[in-house]
Amino acid sequence: MATEYPVLTAEMTLGECISALLQHRVLSMPVVDAQGKYLGQFRKVHLLAAVLPAIAVHDPRFDRITRMIDSGLLQETMSDVRALYSAIANDPVSLHLDPEAPVLRPDQPLVAAMFYLFHGHNFLPVVEAETGLLVGEVSSWHVLECITQSP
Fold first, then answer.
1. Residue 102 pairs with which residues in a beta bridge?
2. Looking at the domain covering 8-66+88-148, what would its CATH class be?
3. Is the pTM of this model over 0.90?
4. Cα-based distances in Å from 113 to 76, 82, 128
5. Would you state the pLDDT for residue 110?
6. Which end of the chain is less enclosed by CB atoms within 10 A, N or C?
7. Which residues are CB-neighbours of 14 under 8 A, at least 6 positions away?
8. In a structure prediction context, what are the per-residue pLDDT tens digits for the chain, which is 151 residues long?
């Protein structure tokens, strides 16, 4: 578990959060309040969901979406996407975070982290159950290192 990691704060805008993801080259970051209490996870998919056409976000059938793009039914350009982003860049991050994203407790075994990582989460916040404070973060890299280390 890492005890030093970048975090986002509740006061940040969506644009500032995207800049932080790019700066740290991560796909998600935890969001905390002024006291360090965990509020939720902000992931790159939250931005993509906000700028993709609604049909692409809500229809899980990739082959159907691909056919719609290929046939010209979905015609959004990068200019369209940038305009959508500009319209939401000053939104507070609270409108785009996931408060239900899985978290780990400090006393949980590594297998719990492995389960969540297997199901597509790359970074897992570690939160004290009693206080709600963010105390660490477990990444895919931490788990891979633990698995490959000799006992």
1. none
2. alpha beta
3. no
4. 38, 35, 15
5. 86
6. C
7. 47, 50, 88, 89, 90, 91, 92, 93, 95, 96
8. 777 889 999 999 999 999 999 999 988 899 999 999 999 999 888 788 777 665 555 556 556 656 666 666 566 777 888 888 899 899 999 888 888 889 999 999 989 889 988 887 788 999 999 999 999 999 888 888 888 887 7
Q: Where are the domains of the chain?
A: 8-66+88-148
103 CB-contact burial (10 Å; exposed 0-12 / middle 13-18 / buried 19+): buried
Give residue for tokens 């935890």.
30
Could you tell me if 39 and 32 are in contact, meaning their C-beta atoms sit under 8 angstroms apart? yes
Instruction: Read off the DSSP letter of residue 18.
Output: H
Counting Cβ atoms within 10 Å, is residue 134 exposed (0-12), middle (13-18) or buried (19+)? buried
CA 103/CA 77 separation, integer angstroms: 36
Q: What φ, ψ does residue 122 adopt, rounded to 5°?
A: -95, -25
- The length of the chain, given as a count of residues: 151
Let me know: does 65 contact 74? Beta carbons within 8 Å. yes
In this prediction, residue 73 carries a pLDDT of: 59
